[in-house]
Amino acid sequence: MFKSTISRRVRIAAMLMSAGVLSSVVAPTAAHAEELREEGARVHSAVTVQMVPTCAPEHPDCDLSEFIPESRAGTRGSVSGTCGTSTIYVDKVGTHKGRVSWGMHINTGYIVLREIAVAWGPAGGGSFADVSPMYSTNYSTSRTVSGSGNFSATIGGAVQLVGNKYVHCTIPFHSTNTIRI
Fold first, then answer.
1. By C-alpha distance, which of 154, 40, 44 is closest to 91?
2. Are 56 and 62 in contact (CB under 8 A)?
3. In the predicted model, what is the mean pLDDT of residues 154-159?
């Protein structure tokens, strides 16, 4: 059920991001954002947010105590703790060329399945459903985009951890600032 539920959410989110509906959604838990400027114009933008431990939809009352400090042990359902970080990054790599990069780091185990929706634009607009099994604590990849004009990217989704099919780490939707390519 996890895979079909999240896959459907990823497809819908990717369509909404491509249409510009979710392009301005930024998670309120943004941990780090940066941008550089070149002669008055941004040449890159990055946003990093905390990934949030959540229970699988079919097990809404799972035990999330391993993700929170001992002083709050026993919490079930949802927590304000973290299971890692997610970063989305855009940069100008040449005349009318940009790059969108995304990645994550998990600090509570190994990722066995990722289901991520990434969209970028309006210059060189597109989207990508990054869905695949894996076995690692880190992941990153990028796409080169051709186009001219404003360029930003949005990411969201979830990953499943090894050993606990009831707990997922949710990547809150977050977006970069706009740069010019």
1. 44
2. yes
3. 93
Query: What is the identity of the amino acid at 128?
Result: F
> What's the pLDDT at 52?
87
pLDDT in tens, 62-102: 777 766 655 444 444 444 457 889 999 999 999 999 999 99
**Which residues are bridge partners to 25 per DSSP?**
none
Beta bridge partners of residue 54, listed in sequence order:
78, 168
Separation CA 51–CA 169 (nearest Å): 6
Answer whether 83's CB lies under 8 Å from 161's CB.
yes
Answering whether pTM is above 0.85, one says: no
Q: Is 149 helix (H, G, I), strand (E, B) or coil?
A: coil
- Dist. CA 61–CA 3, nearest whole Å: 19
CA-based Rg of the chain, rounded to a whole angstrom?
17
By the 8 A CB rule, do 110 and 133 touch? no
